[in-house]
Amino acid sequence: MLRAPYRISIYHNWAIQLQLLLDWEDAARLAFEEAFEAGIIDRPVELVSREVWGAPNGSALEVGAAMRDIVANDRVHAMIGLAMTEDCAVLRQEINEKMKIPVLTFAATTGFDGEYCFSAPCGTFMDEAPVIAAFIKSQGFERFAMIHDTSFQGEEYGEALRASARHANLEIACCESINSVAPEAEVIEKLQLAKAAGVEAFAYVGVGMQFKQLAAAFRKLDWNPKLRMTGLTFCGANPGFDGPTQYEGWYGLDQYHEGNETLMKMAVAFQKRFGRDGSHMWAAHGYDEGRVMALALGNASPPSRAGIRAAMEKIRMLPAAVGCPGNHISYGPYDHRGYKGDYFTIRRINEGRNELVGVPSQFLASL
Fold first, then answer.
1. Rounded to an integer, what is the distance from CA 192 to the centroid of its chain?
2. pLDDT of 248-266, one tens digit each?
3. Is the whole model's pTM more than 0.90, yes or no?
4. Which residues contact 238 (CB under 8 A, 6 or more apart)?
5. Helix crossing, 211-221 with 184-196: angle to 10°?
6. CATH topology of domain 6-123+258-336
């Protein structure tokens, strides 16, 4: 007799129906299938997919309503997803105190904490900011201009970059903020102020919704500073998002490293299983999150929501597909942030090629 499957909610609240995020779900599916075949779990996993647009495009209230329905009616053991920082901030307390379901997010924030909140983050604003500052400093610049957007994420990121610049003894010659849906004229006006500061280094940080307009504004103003840099917004250079053309000449942060053996092995298995290229950071995230949850399911005693939460805290030194060689995943009773090591990279688009520039630790060491 076949055992009833484990049921895991996979919750899309961002980039809904984008192929790269469908790859994220399929990579998690691959991880669960491999775990079942290897005997790590004693039954297959059924992924229960739900799509609700979260903030800033949608509403954290709608995301919360859907989560309550999932927890009450979908009979799931745990959840993977809840990707947007603002949604995590709004729902964190309710998840810990009322829902009491393990949630594994890739949201880029340190603010998703508590008994049932776990992360394997897609960067983190407070981690990305010192790396950006260190890289600007390493390239010989003493001052730069920055623009951040006024979203929940953008304000957190802007504050972190200002603090990191002070630590790196960098002068911020111009600091402007802009609404994530501001019109073209306002974007150009803000960038003109940055250009007028007379700097040769520029950084844009935030949720990333203004990147295309900002890149176009550089062309309209015919401004080509020696260094233009962004954070994980750079992942938009992947084919399937905006592609590399918009990012030509930019440096940025990504979570893909061609030397990561865990990622490369997963990509081969992903191609064989689904007939698509899985060698990108979103498939890497899905694979990591699926393996974390599979290990927790296999070790939970009993496999209840509370048991899975406790088992997640015992996962140690799991090689990660995300990030650089040596990056791994470890949790603990008071440590629910999984990645340990260089979990993102510095890359650039050079004549259409997405090139590896370096890893965070090599630039942070120079401060």
1. 30
2. 999 999 999 999 999 999 9
3. yes
4. 20, 280, 281, 282, 354
5. 60
6. Rossmann fold (3.40.50)
